């Protein structure tokens, strides 16, 4: 991906919930990710590396320590690894036993994902079944069906030519890697192991770990921890990031300049990419770090709607992605990935999209325990637009 030969699709919940770990919701999240990946691969002709924000995304950094509702002030929600989501003093009391529960929930999620990705559900011959019921009739759903028909036809064609598709593993199973923010260092450390063959250390809580925009200080504890493990790692890059800070982080996390080691995830906000991204791209390029540049078009575009709901506009999400691609192209940098918050459920958390979610609908199905997520239709719509950008 750092060399421009692949595209990273990193997607899933803002915060996974202990209360919503049903097999169906995990399966449907996987469906959307698989659909998006097919759309990108077919539409743009590049291999897509699929990474879920899944099986461990239970801890949240917050901008303010407390939250006030009707004169009651309580600790902000910091994820189910820490405490409950309900707005009561009892529920918001931190409980360390939740760290053990987070591990167990992650392991159970991983078991299910393994069964689904390797056991037939992710088979190319089932691509029609990944289309979710409620999305099927929408414009995106129909557009996806057409791609699925074409892939069916191509597979039949290859079979008719005598190619042995039965034994082609890449058609019958997929790799879905897991990721979460490495926020609670005690949790991450306790799952850190040394590889007995190479002697290298790995954080075994996920394949890929990232550092959030609030904890990316070059001399901070989170950078110090991830410096010591060999996993591929990411750093979120918010609008306040200076080139000097970024270079210091790159030097610490990627001193040997290894392709694939470091992914920089820009989350600058719609309308700010043209201003802020060029000097960061230049600085990292001149220092010779072969990073993957990915775009998180979600976290710079969150706002509180007057109805009280925290939301994002789909046009802003697309707008930031478009600008990211353009600026990367202008600087000769491969736009290597997209990082998004989504769910397979038919929620109404982000505004807009082709089947327009209006502000009056936010209350209908606002189910996230943290940031607003794209629903399956909006996610697919975004994948089609991203494929187009990649093709250009
Ligand atoms: C997140 O990814 O949910 C998040 C909190 O991102 P950031 O650190 O970029 O704000
Ligand atoms: Co979030």
Q: Outline of this structure?
A:
37% of the residues lie in helices and 16% in strands. By secondary structure, the chain is α/β, with parallel strands linked by helices.
Radius of gyration: 21 Å
End-to-end Cα distance: 17 Å
Number of domains: 1
User: CATH homologous superfamily - what is it?
Assistant: Aldolase class I
What would the principal axes of the Cα set say about the shape? globular
Give the low-pLDDT segments: none
User: Main β-sheet: number of strands, strand sense, barrel status?
Assistant: 8 strands, parallel, barrel
Tally of helical runs: 11
Question: For the record, what CATH class applies?
Answer: Alpha Beta
Task: Give the fraction of residues assigned to helices.
Answer: 25-40%
Distinct ligand kinds: phosphoenolpyruvate, cobalt (II) ion
**H/E element sequence:** EHEEEHHHHEHEEEHEHEHEEEHEH
CATH third-level topology: TIM Barrel
């Amino acid at each position: 991906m750092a060399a421009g030969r692949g595209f990273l699709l990193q997607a899933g919940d803002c915060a996974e919930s202990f209360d919503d770990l049903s097999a169906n919701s995990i399966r449907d999240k996987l469906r959307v990710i698989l659909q998006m990946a097919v759309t990108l691969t077919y539409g743009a002709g590049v291999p897509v590396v699929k990474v879920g924000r899944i099986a461990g995304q239970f801890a949240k950094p917050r901008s303010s320590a407390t939250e006030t509702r009707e004169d009651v002030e309580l600790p902000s929600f910091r994820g189910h690894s820490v405490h409950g989501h309900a707005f009561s003093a009892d529920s918001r009391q931190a409980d360390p036993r939740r760290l053990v529960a987070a591990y167990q929930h992650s392991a159970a999620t991983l078991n299910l994902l393994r069964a689904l990705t390797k056991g037939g559900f992710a088979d190319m011959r089932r691509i029609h079944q990944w289309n979710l019921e409620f999305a099927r009739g929408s414009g995106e759903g129909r557009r996806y069906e057409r791609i699925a028909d074409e892939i069916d036809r191509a597979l039949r064609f290859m079979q008719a030519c005598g190619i042995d598709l039965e034994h082609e593993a890449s058609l019958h199973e997929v790799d879905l890697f897991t990721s979460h923010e490495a926020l609670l260092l005690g949790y991450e450390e306790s799952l850190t192991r040394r590889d007995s063959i190479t002697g290298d250390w790995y954080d075994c809580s996920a394949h890929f770990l990232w550092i959030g925009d609030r904890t990316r200080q070059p001399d901070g504890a989170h950078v110090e921890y991830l410096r010591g493990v060999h996993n591929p790692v990411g750093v979120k890059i918010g609008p306040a990031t200076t080139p000097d800070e970024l270079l210091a982080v790159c030097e610490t996390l990627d001193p040997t300049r290894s392709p694939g080691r470091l992914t920089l995830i820009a989350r600058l906000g719609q309308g700010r990419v043209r201003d802020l991204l060029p000097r960061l791209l230049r600085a990292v390029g001149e220092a010779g770090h072969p990073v993957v540049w990915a775009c998180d078009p979600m976290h710079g575009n969150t706002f509180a709607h007057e109805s009280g709901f925290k939301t994002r506009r789909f046009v802003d999400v697309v707008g930031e992605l478009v600008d990211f691609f353009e600026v990367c192209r202008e600087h000769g940098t491969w736009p290597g990935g997209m990082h998004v918050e989504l769910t397979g459920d038919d929620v109404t958390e982000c505004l807009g999209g082709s089947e327009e979610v209006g502000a009056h609908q936010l209350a209908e199905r606002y189910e996230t325990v943290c940031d607003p997520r794209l629903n399956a239709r909006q996610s697919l719509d975004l994948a089609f637009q991203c494929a187009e950008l990649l093709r250009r």
